[in-house]
Specification:
globular, 6% helix, four-stranded antiparallel sheet, Methylamine Dehydrogenase, Chain H, 495 residues, 40 strands, mainly beta, single chain
Protein backbone atom coordinates (compact mmCIF):
# COMPACT_ATOMS: atom_id res chain seq x y z
CA UNK A 1 0.00 0.00 0.00
CA UNK A 2 2.83 2.40 0.87
CA UNK A 3 4.60 1.76 -2.44
CA UNK A 4 1.36 2.27 -4.33
CA UNK A 5 0.66 5.49 -2.43
CA UNK A 6 4.09 6.80 -3.45
CA UNK A 7 3.30 6.14 -7.11
CA UNK A 8 -0.15 7.68 -6.70
CA UNK A 9 1.34 10.85 -5.22
CA UNK A 10 4.10 11.07 -7.84
CA UNK A 11 1.75 10.61 -10.78
CA UNK A 12 -0.85 13.15 -9.66
CA UNK A 13 1.30 15.55 -7.60
CA UNK A 14 0.78 18.49 -9.92
CA UNK A 15 -3.04 18.48 -9.86
CA UNK A 16 -3.23 17.57 -6.17
CA UNK A 17 -0.88 20.44 -5.27
CA UNK A 18 -3.29 22.82 -7.03
CA UNK A 19 -6.43 21.38 -5.45
CA UNK A 20 -6.55 18.62 -2.85
CA UNK A 21 -10.03 17.69 -4.08
CA UNK A 22 -8.40 16.23 -7.19
CA UNK A 23 -7.34 13.27 -5.05
CA UNK A 24 -10.95 12.14 -5.43
CA UNK A 25 -12.10 13.99 -8.55
CA UNK A 26 -9.43 12.93 -11.04
CA UNK A 27 -6.49 11.09 -9.44
CA UNK A 28 -8.46 8.18 -8.02
CA UNK A 29 -10.56 7.41 -11.12
CA UNK A 30 -7.58 7.80 -13.47
CA UNK A 31 -5.23 5.60 -11.42
CA UNK A 32 -4.57 2.09 -12.83
CA UNK A 33 -7.06 -0.67 -12.20
CA UNK A 34 -4.36 -2.69 -10.40
CA UNK A 35 -3.61 0.18 -7.98
CA UNK A 36 -4.04 -0.84 -4.34
CA UNK A 37 -5.13 2.70 -3.47
CA UNK A 38 -7.77 2.66 -6.20
CA UNK A 39 -9.09 -0.77 -5.22
CA UNK A 40 -9.36 0.28 -1.57
CA UNK A 41 -11.03 3.66 -2.03
CA UNK A 42 -12.77 3.94 -5.42
CA UNK A 43 -16.02 2.45 -4.14
CA UNK A 44 -16.25 5.13 -1.44
CA UNK A 45 -16.55 7.86 -4.09
CA UNK A 46 -19.29 6.70 -6.42
CA UNK A 47 -20.14 10.20 -7.69
CA UNK A 48 -16.74 10.97 -9.20
CA UNK A 49 -15.53 10.43 -12.78
CA UNK A 50 -15.78 6.98 -14.32
CA UNK A 51 -13.67 5.57 -17.16
CA UNK A 52 -15.90 3.55 -19.46
CA UNK A 53 -13.24 2.27 -21.86
CA UNK A 54 -9.44 2.33 -21.92
CA UNK A 55 -7.49 3.58 -18.93
CA UNK A 56 -4.35 2.18 -17.35
CA UNK A 57 -4.06 -1.40 -16.13
CA UNK A 58 -0.75 -0.83 -14.28
CA UNK A 59 1.41 2.11 -13.22
CA UNK A 60 3.50 3.29 -16.19
CA UNK A 61 7.23 3.90 -15.72
CA UNK A 62 6.74 7.60 -16.54
CA UNK A 63 5.96 9.51 -13.35
CA UNK A 64 5.93 13.13 -14.45
CA UNK A 65 6.39 15.38 -17.48
CA UNK A 66 7.75 18.87 -16.86
CA UNK A 67 6.85 21.43 -19.51
CA UNK A 68 8.23 24.95 -19.48
CA UNK A 69 11.17 25.20 -21.85
CA UNK A 70 10.33 26.49 -25.32
CA UNK A 71 13.06 24.61 -27.15
CA UNK A 72 15.11 21.40 -26.87
CA UNK A 73 16.20 20.30 -23.38
CA UNK A 74 19.90 19.49 -23.62
CA UNK A 75 20.88 18.62 -20.05
CA UNK A 76 19.21 17.53 -16.80
CA UNK A 77 20.52 16.71 -13.34
CA UNK A 78 19.18 15.98 -9.85
CA UNK A 79 20.20 18.04 -6.84
CA UNK A 80 22.27 16.02 -4.32
CA UNK A 81 19.27 15.63 -2.01
CA UNK A 82 17.01 14.54 -4.88
CA UNK A 83 14.36 17.20 -4.26
CA UNK A 84 15.10 19.36 -7.31
CA UNK A 85 16.00 18.97 -10.97
CA UNK A 86 17.96 21.49 -13.02
CA UNK A 87 17.61 21.64 -16.79
CA UNK A 88 19.35 23.54 -19.58
CA UNK A 89 17.83 24.27 -22.95
CA UNK A 90 18.30 25.65 -26.45
CA UNK A 91 16.02 28.48 -25.26
CA UNK A 92 19.16 29.95 -23.55
CA UNK A 93 17.79 29.39 -20.01
CA UNK A 94 18.22 27.20 -16.94
CA UNK A 95 15.15 26.06 -14.97
CA UNK A 96 14.93 24.41 -11.54
CA UNK A 97 11.99 22.10 -10.87
CA UNK A 98 10.41 20.42 -7.87
CA UNK A 99 11.35 16.78 -8.52
CA UNK A 100 7.98 15.48 -7.34
CA UNK A 101 5.40 17.99 -8.52
CA UNK A 102 7.20 19.31 -11.60
CA UNK A 103 6.58 22.92 -10.59
CA UNK A 104 9.26 25.48 -11.51
CA UNK A 105 10.82 26.52 -8.20
CA UNK A 106 13.55 28.78 -9.60
CA UNK A 107 14.24 30.46 -12.91
CA UNK A 108 14.40 30.87 -15.73
CA UNK A 109 18.04 31.86 -15.19
CA UNK A 110 18.76 34.24 -18.04
CA UNK A 111 22.10 35.58 -19.22
CA UNK A 112 23.52 33.20 -21.78
CA UNK A 113 23.35 34.49 -25.34
CA UNK A 114 23.01 31.06 -26.92
CA UNK A 115 22.10 27.44 -26.22
CA UNK A 116 22.69 26.05 -22.71
CA UNK A 117 24.37 22.71 -23.44
CA UNK A 118 25.18 21.43 -19.96
CA UNK A 119 24.16 22.01 -16.32
CA UNK A 120 25.33 20.59 -12.98
CA UNK A 121 24.66 21.05 -9.26
CA UNK A 122 27.38 21.66 -6.69
CA UNK A 123 27.67 18.95 -4.04
CA UNK A 124 25.92 21.10 -1.42
CA UNK A 125 23.07 21.88 -3.83
CA UNK A 126 23.41 25.65 -3.47
CA UNK A 127 24.87 26.41 -6.91
CA UNK A 128 24.33 25.41 -10.51
CA UNK A 129 26.94 25.59 -13.26
CA UNK A 130 25.98 26.01 -16.90
CA UNK A 131 27.97 25.82 -20.14
CA UNK A 132 26.78 27.44 -23.33
CA UNK A 133 27.27 27.77 -27.05
CA UNK A 134 28.12 31.42 -26.32
CA UNK A 135 31.54 29.99 -25.24
CA UNK A 136 31.01 30.93 -21.58
CA UNK A 137 30.44 29.20 -18.24
CA UNK A 138 28.31 30.65 -15.47
CA UNK A 139 27.67 29.70 -11.83
CA UNK A 140 24.24 30.55 -10.41
CA UNK A 141 22.62 30.60 -6.99
CA UNK A 142 20.33 27.56 -7.23
CA UNK A 143 17.54 29.24 -5.27
CA UNK A 144 17.51 32.79 -6.61
CA UNK A 145 19.14 32.49 -10.03
CA UNK A 146 21.60 35.24 -9.17
CA UNK A 147 24.97 34.99 -10.93
CA UNK A 148 27.50 34.13 -8.20
CA UNK A 149 30.55 33.46 -10.38
CA UNK A 150 31.50 34.05 -13.98
CA UNK A 151 31.21 34.72 -16.73
CA UNK A 152 34.19 32.32 -17.31
CA UNK A 153 35.67 33.09 -20.71
CA UNK A 154 38.55 31.40 -22.50
CA UNK A 155 37.22 28.66 -24.74
CA UNK A 156 37.50 29.43 -28.43
CA UNK A 157 34.30 27.62 -29.37
CA UNK A 158 31.04 26.51 -27.81
CA UNK A 159 31.13 24.78 -24.38
CA UNK A 160 29.66 21.28 -24.59
CA UNK A 161 29.95 19.97 -21.02
CA UNK A 162 30.50 21.29 -17.47
CA UNK A 163 30.66 19.76 -13.98
CA UNK A 164 31.57 20.74 -10.41
CA UNK A 165 34.41 19.06 -8.55
CA UNK A 166 33.25 16.99 -5.56
CA UNK A 167 34.33 19.70 -3.10
CA UNK A 168 32.63 22.42 -5.13
CA UNK A 169 35.75 24.56 -5.49
CA UNK A 170 36.37 23.92 -9.18
CA UNK A 171 34.47 23.55 -12.43
CA UNK A 172 35.61 21.48 -15.41
CA UNK A 173 34.55 22.29 -18.94
CA UNK A 174 34.90 20.67 -22.35
CA UNK A 175 34.55 22.40 -25.68
CA UNK A 176 34.40 22.04 -29.42
CA UNK A 177 37.79 23.77 -29.37
CA UNK A 178 39.17 20.29 -28.46
CA UNK A 179 40.33 21.35 -24.97
CA UNK A 180 39.45 20.66 -21.34
CA UNK A 181 39.76 23.50 -18.79
CA UNK A 182 39.46 23.77 -15.00
CA UNK A 183 38.16 26.95 -13.35
CA UNK A 184 37.98 28.41 -9.86
CA UNK A 185 34.27 28.01 -9.04
CA UNK A 186 34.23 31.16 -6.88
CA UNK A 187 36.54 33.63 -8.58
CA UNK A 188 36.22 32.32 -12.08
CA UNK A 189 39.88 32.28 -12.98
CA UNK A 190 41.48 29.45 -14.96
CA UNK A 191 43.30 27.15 -12.50
CA UNK A 192 44.38 24.38 -14.87
CA UNK A 193 44.53 23.88 -18.60
CA UNK A 194 43.81 24.01 -21.34
CA UNK A 195 44.41 20.25 -21.46
CA UNK A 196 45.29 19.44 -25.07
CA UNK A 197 45.44 16.09 -26.80
CA UNK A 198 42.04 15.40 -28.31
CA UNK A 199 41.97 15.76 -32.07
CA UNK A 200 38.28 16.69 -32.31
CA UNK A 201 35.40 18.13 -30.27
CA UNK A 202 35.28 17.30 -26.54
CA UNK A 203 31.68 16.24 -25.98
CA UNK A 204 31.65 15.24 -22.31
CA UNK A 205 33.69 15.81 -19.13
CA UNK A 206 33.41 14.68 -15.51
CA UNK A 207 35.43 14.69 -12.28
CA UNK A 208 36.35 11.45 -10.54
CA UNK A 209 34.58 10.93 -7.16
CA UNK A 210 37.60 12.24 -5.22
CA UNK A 211 38.34 15.05 -7.65
CA UNK A 212 41.88 14.04 -8.55
CA UNK A 213 41.09 13.04 -12.12
CA UNK A 214 38.98 14.24 -15.01
CA UNK A 215 37.58 12.06 -17.79
CA UNK A 216 36.81 13.45 -21.22
CA UNK A 217 35.14 11.89 -24.24
CA UNK A 218 35.67 13.22 -27.72
CA UNK A 219 34.47 13.00 -31.28
CA UNK A 220 37.96 11.66 -32.09
CA UNK A 221 36.66 8.28 -30.75
CA UNK A 222 38.87 8.33 -27.64
CA UNK A 223 38.44 8.73 -23.90
CA UNK A 224 41.21 10.43 -21.92
CA UNK A 225 41.80 10.56 -18.17
CA UNK A 226 43.71 13.59 -16.90
CA UNK A 227 45.25 14.66 -13.60
CA UNK A 228 42.87 17.46 -12.63
CA UNK A 229 45.68 19.73 -11.39
CA UNK A 230 48.49 19.16 -13.87
CA UNK A 231 46.63 18.06 -16.97
CA UNK A 232 48.94 15.08 -17.38
CA UNK A 233 47.39 11.93 -18.84
CA UNK A 234 47.06 9.29 -16.13
CA UNK A 235 45.98 6.53 -18.51
CA UNK A 236 46.50 5.85 -22.16
CA UNK A 237 43.67 6.97 -24.45
CA UNK A 238 40.80 4.47 -24.37
CA UNK A 239 39.96 3.29 -27.87
CA UNK A 240 37.27 0.87 -28.96
CA UNK A 241 34.16 2.76 -29.99
CA UNK A 242 33.95 3.17 -33.73
CA UNK A 243 32.60 6.70 -33.64
CA UNK A 244 32.26 9.81 -31.52
CA UNK A 245 31.94 9.63 -27.73
CA UNK A 246 28.76 11.44 -26.77
CA UNK A 247 28.90 10.97 -22.98
CA UNK A 248 31.26 9.69 -20.28
CA UNK A 249 30.97 9.29 -16.49
CA UNK A 250 32.91 7.77 -13.59
CA UNK A 251 31.47 4.99 -11.44
CA UNK A 252 30.80 5.99 -7.81
CA UNK A 253 33.98 4.25 -6.64
CA UNK A 254 36.07 5.81 -9.41
CA UNK A 255 37.26 2.43 -10.66
CA UNK A 256 35.29 2.38 -13.91
CA UNK A 257 34.17 4.73 -16.65
CA UNK A 258 30.99 4.34 -18.69
CA UNK A 259 30.74 5.73 -22.19
CA UNK A 260 28.00 6.20 -24.75
CA UNK A 261 28.77 6.61 -28.43
CA UNK A 262 27.32 7.43 -31.80
CA UNK A 263 28.25 3.85 -32.74
CA UNK A 264 25.01 2.97 -30.84
CA UNK A 265 26.76 1.21 -27.93
CA UNK A 266 27.50 1.63 -24.24
CA UNK A 267 30.80 0.36 -22.81
CA UNK A 268 32.34 0.12 -19.35
CA UNK A 269 36.10 0.65 -19.01
CA UNK A 270 38.68 0.06 -16.30
CA UNK A 271 39.58 3.63 -15.29
CA UNK A 272 43.27 2.77 -14.86
CA UNK A 273 44.10 0.35 -17.67
CA UNK A 274 41.56 1.45 -20.26
CA UNK A 275 40.44 -2.13 -20.84
CA UNK A 276 36.78 -2.75 -21.66
CA UNK A 277 35.31 -4.61 -18.65
CA UNK A 278 31.69 -4.77 -19.83
CA UNK A 279 29.93 -4.25 -23.14
CA UNK A 280 29.25 -3.27 -25.72
CA UNK A 281 25.59 -2.83 -24.71
CA UNK A 282 23.74 -2.19 -27.93
CA UNK A 283 21.14 0.51 -28.70
CA UNK A 284 19.32 1.06 -31.97
CA UNK A 285 20.54 4.65 -32.31
CA UNK A 286 23.17 7.12 -31.08
CA UNK A 287 23.72 6.94 -27.30
CA UNK A 288 23.69 10.57 -26.24
CA UNK A 289 23.95 10.28 -22.46
CA UNK A 290 25.02 7.72 -19.84
CA UNK A 291 25.27 7.64 -16.05
CA UNK A 292 25.93 5.15 -13.24
CA UNK A 293 23.42 4.50 -10.47
CA UNK A 294 24.55 5.69 -7.01
CA UNK A 295 25.51 2.14 -6.01
CA UNK A 296 27.34 1.50 -9.29
CA UNK A 297 25.34 -1.59 -10.20
CA UNK A 298 23.27 -0.07 -13.00
CA UNK A 299 23.77 2.21 -15.96
CA UNK A 300 21.15 4.43 -17.55
CA UNK A 301 21.46 5.48 -21.16
CA UNK A 302 19.50 7.85 -23.36
CA UNK A 303 19.07 7.35 -27.09
CA UNK A 304 16.54 8.14 -29.80
CA UNK A 305 13.28 8.74 -27.87
CA UNK A 306 14.01 6.09 -25.26
CA UNK A 307 15.72 5.51 -21.92
CA UNK A 308 17.22 2.14 -20.96
CA UNK A 309 18.70 0.73 -17.73
CA UNK A 310 21.43 -1.92 -17.83
CA UNK A 311 23.17 -4.19 -15.36
CA UNK A 312 26.63 -2.58 -15.21
CA UNK A 313 28.41 -5.93 -15.04
CA UNK A 314 26.48 -8.11 -17.46
CA UNK A 315 24.87 -5.64 -19.84
CA UNK A 316 21.46 -7.21 -19.31
CA UNK A 317 18.52 -4.82 -19.65
CA UNK A 318 17.08 -4.45 -16.14
CA UNK A 319 14.47 -1.77 -16.85
CA UNK A 320 12.94 -0.20 -19.92
CA UNK A 321 13.08 0.75 -22.62
CA UNK A 322 11.08 3.73 -21.29
CA UNK A 323 9.35 5.25 -24.28
CA UNK A 324 7.36 8.45 -24.47
CA UNK A 325 9.70 11.24 -25.50
CA UNK A 326 8.86 12.72 -28.88
CA UNK A 327 12.48 13.46 -29.73
CA UNK A 328 16.04 12.37 -29.04
CA UNK A 329 16.96 11.92 -25.36
CA UNK A 330 19.94 14.19 -24.76
CA UNK A 331 20.56 13.75 -21.04
CA UNK A 332 19.79 11.14 -18.38
CA UNK A 333 20.79 10.56 -14.78
CA UNK A 334 19.71 8.72 -11.62
CA UNK A 335 18.27 10.33 -8.52
CA UNK A 336 20.55 10.16 -5.44
CA UNK A 337 18.57 7.22 -4.02
CA UNK A 338 18.63 5.36 -7.33
CA UNK A 339 14.85 5.07 -7.41
CA UNK A 340 14.17 7.53 -10.22
CA UNK A 341 15.63 8.63 -13.54
CA UNK A 342 15.33 12.07 -15.09
CA UNK A 343 15.63 12.64 -18.85
CA UNK A 344 15.69 15.69 -21.10
CA UNK A 345 14.77 15.62 -24.76
CA UNK A 346 14.48 17.40 -28.07
CA UNK A 347 10.70 17.35 -27.48
CA UNK A 348 11.19 20.27 -25.02
CA UNK A 349 10.23 18.19 -21.98
CA UNK A 350 11.88 16.85 -18.84
CA UNK A 351 10.51 13.49 -17.70
CA UNK A 352 10.88 11.52 -14.47
CA UNK A 353 10.71 7.72 -14.56
CA UNK A 354 10.54 5.02 -11.90
CA UNK A 355 13.90 3.28 -12.08
CA UNK A 356 13.00 0.21 -10.01
CA UNK A 357 9.38 -0.30 -9.02
CA UNK A 358 6.48 -0.46 -11.42
CA UNK A 359 8.34 -1.75 -14.45
CA UNK A 360 10.53 -4.64 -15.45
CA UNK A 361 13.58 -4.81 -13.17
CA UNK A 362 15.16 -7.85 -14.71
CA UNK A 363 15.69 -9.40 -18.08
CA UNK A 364 14.10 -12.62 -19.25
CA UNK A 365 14.82 -15.63 -17.01
CA UNK A 366 15.99 -18.03 -19.66
CA UNK A 367 16.68 -21.72 -19.26
CA UNK A 368 13.44 -23.67 -19.64
CA UNK A 369 13.19 -25.45 -22.95
CA UNK A 370 9.39 -25.34 -23.23
CA UNK A 371 6.38 -23.33 -22.08
CA UNK A 372 6.51 -22.04 -18.47
CA UNK A 373 3.20 -22.88 -16.81
CA UNK A 374 3.58 -21.46 -13.30
CA UNK A 375 5.75 -19.05 -11.32
CA UNK A 376 5.76 -17.91 -7.69
CA UNK A 377 7.86 -15.70 -5.40
CA UNK A 378 9.56 -16.99 -2.27
CA UNK A 379 8.18 -15.48 0.98
CA UNK A 380 11.13 -13.05 1.25
CA UNK A 381 10.79 -12.02 -2.38
CA UNK A 382 14.39 -12.91 -3.19
CA UNK A 383 13.70 -15.96 -5.35
CA UNK A 384 11.26 -17.11 -8.01
CA UNK A 385 10.24 -20.71 -8.68
CA UNK A 386 9.02 -21.81 -12.09
CA UNK A 387 7.48 -24.96 -13.51
CA UNK A 388 7.54 -25.86 -17.19
CA UNK A 389 6.34 -28.22 -19.87
CA UNK A 390 9.98 -29.36 -20.06
CA UNK A 391 9.08 -31.39 -16.88
CA UNK A 392 11.46 -29.41 -14.63
CA UNK A 393 11.25 -26.98 -11.71
CA UNK A 394 13.80 -24.15 -11.45
CA UNK A 395 14.64 -21.49 -8.85
CA UNK A 396 15.90 -18.05 -9.90
CA UNK A 397 17.37 -15.02 -8.18
CA UNK A 398 14.53 -12.48 -8.37
CA UNK A 399 16.93 -9.56 -8.79
CA UNK A 400 19.62 -10.83 -11.15
CA UNK A 401 17.64 -13.53 -12.96
CA UNK A 402 20.43 -16.03 -12.34
CA UNK A 403 19.52 -19.70 -11.85
CA UNK A 404 20.20 -20.48 -8.17
CA UNK A 405 18.80 -24.01 -7.95
CA UNK A 406 17.71 -26.68 -10.37
CA UNK A 407 16.57 -27.87 -12.72
CA UNK A 408 14.69 -30.22 -10.35
CA UNK A 409 13.97 -33.37 -12.35
CA UNK A 410 11.50 -36.12 -11.52
CA UNK A 411 8.15 -35.35 -13.05
CA UNK A 412 7.39 -37.34 -16.19
CA UNK A 413 5.18 -34.72 -17.80
CA UNK A 414 4.34 -31.01 -17.82
CA UNK A 415 4.75 -29.17 -14.48
CA UNK A 416 1.49 -27.26 -14.11
CA UNK A 417 1.81 -25.53 -10.72
CA UNK A 418 4.55 -24.54 -8.23
CA UNK A 419 4.60 -22.79 -4.86
CA UNK A 420 6.99 -22.09 -1.97
CA UNK A 421 6.33 -23.20 1.59
CA UNK A 422 5.71 -20.35 4.08
CA UNK A 423 9.29 -20.57 5.40
CA UNK A 424 10.75 -20.70 1.90
CA UNK A 425 12.64 -23.95 2.52
CA UNK A 426 10.47 -26.17 0.34
CA UNK A 427 8.75 -26.10 -3.01
CA UNK A 428 5.65 -28.00 -4.01
CA UNK A 429 4.94 -28.89 -7.62
CA UNK A 430 2.15 -30.65 -9.47
CA UNK A 431 2.12 -32.21 -12.89
CA UNK A 432 0.01 -33.65 -15.64
CA UNK A 433 1.70 -36.96 -14.71
CA UNK A 434 -0.85 -37.06 -11.85
CA UNK A 435 1.64 -36.50 -9.01
CA UNK A 436 2.56 -33.87 -6.43
CA UNK A 437 6.16 -33.55 -5.24
CA UNK A 438 7.85 -31.53 -2.48
CA UNK A 439 11.44 -30.43 -3.04
CA UNK A 440 14.19 -28.95 -0.93
CA UNK A 441 14.32 -25.40 -2.32
CA UNK A 442 18.12 -25.32 -2.27
CA UNK A 443 19.27 -28.82 -3.14
CA UNK A 444 16.34 -29.98 -5.28
CA UNK A 445 16.11 -33.24 -3.34
CA UNK A 446 12.61 -34.71 -3.06
CA UNK A 447 11.69 -34.41 0.64
CA UNK A 448 8.11 -35.68 0.36
CA UNK A 449 5.97 -37.36 -2.31
CA UNK A 450 5.06 -38.78 -4.65
CA UNK A 451 1.46 -37.95 -3.76
CA UNK A 452 -0.24 -40.25 -6.27
CA UNK A 453 -3.89 -40.49 -5.29
CA UNK A 454 -4.92 -38.37 -8.28
CA UNK A 455 -6.76 -39.78 -11.26
CA UNK A 456 -5.95 -36.93 -13.62
CA UNK A 457 -3.79 -33.85 -14.18
CA UNK A 458 -2.99 -31.97 -10.96
CA UNK A 459 -3.72 -28.42 -12.05
CA UNK A 460 -2.84 -26.47 -8.92
CA UNK A 461 -1.09 -26.89 -5.55
CA UNK A 462 -0.54 -24.65 -2.54
CA UNK A 463 0.83 -24.90 1.01
CA UNK A 464 -1.33 -24.13 4.02
CA UNK A 465 -0.25 -20.99 5.98
CA UNK A 466 1.49 -23.11 8.62
CA UNK A 467 3.20 -25.30 6.02
CA UNK A 468 1.89 -28.58 7.41
CA UNK A 469 -0.60 -29.36 4.64
CA UNK A 470 -0.92 -29.13 0.89
CA UNK A 471 -4.08 -28.64 -1.14
CA UNK A 472 -4.26 -29.89 -4.71
CA UNK A 473 -6.91 -29.62 -7.39
CA UNK A 474 -7.58 -32.17 -10.11
CA UNK A 475 -10.48 -33.28 -12.31
CA UNK A 476 -13.07 -31.13 -10.47
CA UNK A 477 -11.77 -32.30 -7.09
CA UNK A 478 -9.73 -30.79 -4.22
CA UNK A 479 -7.56 -32.95 -2.00
CA UNK A 480 -5.63 -32.07 1.20
CA UNK A 481 -2.40 -33.86 2.12
CA UNK A 482 -0.07 -34.05 5.09
CA UNK A 483 3.00 -32.17 3.80
CA UNK A 484 5.42 -34.56 5.49
CA UNK A 485 3.88 -38.03 5.13
CA UNK A 486 1.82 -37.52 2.00
CA UNK A 487 -1.23 -39.01 3.65
CA UNK A 488 -4.63 -37.71 2.53
CA UNK A 489 -6.09 -35.79 5.47
CA UNK A 490 -9.18 -34.36 3.78
CA UNK A 491 -11.07 -34.56 0.48
CA UNK A 492 -11.70 -35.17 -2.24
CA UNK A 493 -14.17 -32.31 -2.53
CA UNK A 494 -16.21 -31.98 -5.71
CA UNK A 495 -16.77 -28.48 -7.03
Amino acid sequence: MAVDMEKFASMFARVISQSAAHIYLSALPFSPRSSTVRQRYIHDYGRTLTIQTGGLSHWPPIQNIFSGHIDMVTSVTFSPDGTRIASGSYDHTVLVWDAVTGEVVAGPFEGHDSYVNSVGFSQDGTRIVSGSSDRTIRVWDAATGELVAGTFEGHNDLVTSVAFSPDGTRVVSGSIDMTVRVWDAVKGGLVAGPFKGHKDHVNSVAFSPVGTCIVSGSRDSTIRVWNSLTGQLVARPFEGHGYSFMSVAFSPDGMCIVSGSSDQTVRVWDAVTGEVVAGPFEHDDFVRSVAFSPDGTRIVSGSDRMVQVWDAATGEVVAGPFEGHGGCVNSVTFSPDGMHIVSGSDDWTVRVWGAVKGEAVGGALEGHEKLVRSVAFSPDGMCIVSGSDDTTVRVWDAVTGELVAGPFEGHNHDVLSVAFSPNGNRIVSSSSDGTVRIWDAITGEIVAGLFENHDYYVNSVVFSPDGTRIASSFDEMIQVWDAVTGEVVAGAYAW
